[in-house]
Amino acid sequence: xxxxxxxxxxxxxxxxxHVCGGRKxxxxxxxxxxxxVKIPDAYLEVLDLGNMLFPALYxxxxxxxxxxxxxxxxxxxxxxxxxxxxxxxPDIWIYSYQQQKRHAAMPWIGASSxxxxxxxxxxxxxxxxxxxxxxxxDCIPQLFPTIEFFLGHMEVVKRVRNLxxxxxxxxxxxxxxxxKREIRTLAxxxxxxx
Length: 194
Known about the structure:
The protein starts with 7 loop residues before the first strand and ends with a helix. It is globular and about 50 Å long. Strands 1-2 form a two-stranded antiparallel ribbon. Helix content is 57%, strand content 6%. The chain is mainly alpha-helical and 194 residues long. The protein is built from 8 helices and 2 strands; from the N terminus they run ββαααααααα.
């Protein structure tokens, strides 16, 4: 008899579907992800925190992209990225262009046709912040009450996001809760424009 039934999917997270043989010695203490690399348990304790934080970060970054794209398009036209941004923030334009070339070199990665990929999808959260700062006369108070309001909340989000995305093993639950609170505050403004 085949023993295939012992392998069941246990979690879908950033890394895709993980499979567990159901044995407790394969699992870290209290963590639902299967150990792939033999790193100490203390490093694995952070995995569930990342799973708690990722959905909020994903929604914030993409919501911010959409609101910037839509709003700046109404101000400068549909070619604002190649005309206005290229002139005003050339480093961000170059970064996006380089990401487009990398994407073209491996088109099977991120090949979903779920949404149209725009240049703004290829930049970082820090770049999005720089765009708001550069276009502040257009974006403030239309998108956020003041530039200080936006930057203050973004600073907390970026710090925790960077702990998470750079695999810092000492991120805490309170860090994630704080970041999610800041994300909700920013989202309340973004949601009025999407």
